[in-house]
Amino acid sequence: MSDLAVAVDKVSLTLRPRKALGRTGGHVVLSDVSLSLGRGNTLGIVGRNGAGKSTLLRLIAGIIKPDKGTVSCFGLRASLLALNAGVLPHLSGRDNAIMSGMLLGLSRRSIEGLLDQIKEFSELGEYFDQPVSTYSTGMRARLGFSTALQVDPDIILIDEILGVGDAEFRLKSRQALREKILSDKTVVLVSHEQAAIRALCDRVLWIEQGRVQELGPVEEVMCSYLKALQPKP
Amino acid sequence: MTHYLELIRYRALAELKMELSRLYLGMLWWVFEPILYMTAFYVVFDLLFQRGGEGFIGFLLCGLVPWKWFGSAISNASKSLDANAALIRQVYVPKIIFPAIVVLTGFYKFLVVLVLLMGFLWVYGYPPNSAWVALPLVVLVNFMLVLGGASLMAFFMPFLPDLKMVLDNMLVLLMFLSGIFFDIRQLSVEQQGWFELNPVATLFTLYRTVLLDAEWPLWGDLFGLGLLGLVLFVMSFTLFRRYDRVFPIVIG
Q1: Is A147 among the domain residues?
Q2: Is the model's pLDDT at B2 over the cut of 80?
């Protein structure tokens, strides 16, 4: 099974965030979740808010560790498509792009080699060398997206970010991401946009209250998921 | 591993750059701040209580300059994981890099101020002497001690957020107990024994021995402090490795 990219095996996780003295307990976020994803495939994850979708992505990214079970990426680098993580606003867009690239695991040399493409895609022009604190929200998103797109890990984990910025840039960024997903990339995509899931994914995982409800072909799973969302008569 | 060292260095320099661009007086503050700080002590202890005596300013500075690095590194490092919470939630990085960045940023500033201190001492009547050769060793030991202390505090703070409320006061206490503005050797032998238990006080003595007394540092003290710093660092390194993927949950 060397063509696997992600294997999640019987994973359970209970969150116990830090609490005031005397409060105990936690809540079960994931319970006995298993899935596998082949190289070059795209898996969609659907489920209601709080079902554990984002937590599952963070487990695959290696940010957190399960209480039980194992997560393996077979030595591949999996990272969340994160916009502006660790941005230092008083530094230029260029410096921040270098920093993000390094935080996401690229060597300084390789990220520096990508700067021209990042600048071009972001369409920031002269602003690329201005401090990020002078940017509008949309411009920050452009910088973050362009950097994240160029960093290009082996496995891309996407949590709802399918496009950013104004109408024009949104279209362009969606298009670029779409091309990337449809190419030979391994992708895990969390989204509430049914159209996106249908268009981009090979298989879909539906989770409900931390448990796998259904895992299978897109149409089949989406059909039962949508049925479950309908109010009971 | 080398990747993360490069990242620590890049981010430390970036933070310096940021600090410089944010203030109108930029780098001058690295010098002004210790001077202002020193002036306060000078006014109180030398002018007001007349406890200073000859050579008081030099004595004061040899404690104050390393203390600024030590104190602010411990204080900032203990907040460093919370300060980078958004990043920690989204990207996996070994969390020990955050206190390391704080320590390195402080180190660069310290070096600038140390060079100025050496220049000042020269003018003030302590010309360079052969014992200054040992200064890099004292700085190295200082680095180990700051790194060990800062990373250990950075590790425990997210688990014990209430410690934040007392930490800064503890640091003030530690500063007073480190003999920054009085010579430990003037105390009774019994009291001196207690002060010798404080590694920070020993560290300041090392600086004073080299810079003011123009003598070689006590090698036993030098080695002991370096070892202490190393042990603290190895301890925090091990703890961080073990709990690296717990922090995003604890902080989140």
Answers
A1: yes
A2: yes
Q: A138: domain range?
A: 94-154+162-184
Angle between helices B135-156 and B199-211 (to 10 degrees): 160
Residue of A27, A84, A102, A155 to mutate, interface with B, max B Cβ within 10 Å: A102
Total domains in the fold of chain A: 2
pTM of the model: 0.90
Alpha-carbon gap: A96 to the closest alpha carbon of chain B (Å): 9
Q: Is residue A85, in this structure, part of any structural domain at all?
A: no
* Structural domain includes residue A134: yes
| pLDDT digit string, tens, across residues B102-115 | 999 999 999 988 99
Q: Does B24 touch chain A (CB under 8 A)?
A: no
- What pLDDT does A1 receive? 46
Q: Are both A58 and A103 inside the same structural domain? A: no
Pairing status of strand A155-159 against strand A203-208: unpaired
Pull the structure tokens for residue B83: 């300060």
Shortest CB distance from A103 goes to which of B87, B248, B252? B87
- Is A179 found in the same domain as A117? yes
Considering the domain architecture, whether residues A98 and A180 belong to the same structural domain is answered as: yes
Q: What is the mean pLDDT of residues B239-249?
A: 92
Contact across the interface for B90 and A63, Cβ inside 8 Å: yes
AA letter at A94: R
pLDDT in tens, B163-219: 888 998 999 899 888 888 777 777 778 877 787 788 999 999 999 999 999 999 999
- Judged by phi (left if over 0) then psi (alpha if -120 to 50, else beta), residue A59 lies in alpha
Q: Does residue A198 register a pLDDT over 80?
A: yes
* Backbone conformation region of residue A40, classed left if phi is above 0, alpha if psi is from -120 to 50, else beta: left
Residues of chain A with a CB closer than 8 angstroms to some CB in chain B = 15-18, 58, 61-65, 79-80, 82, 85-86, 88, 90-91, 95, 98-99, 102-105, 107-108, 131
Would residue A222 count as lying in a domain?
yes
A19 vs B138 pLDDT, higher one: B138
Instruction: For the sheet with A27-38, list strands across it.
Output: A27-38, A4-15, A68-72
CB of B161 less than 8 A from some CB of A: yes
Whether the CB of B94 is below 8 Å from some CB of chain A: the reply is no
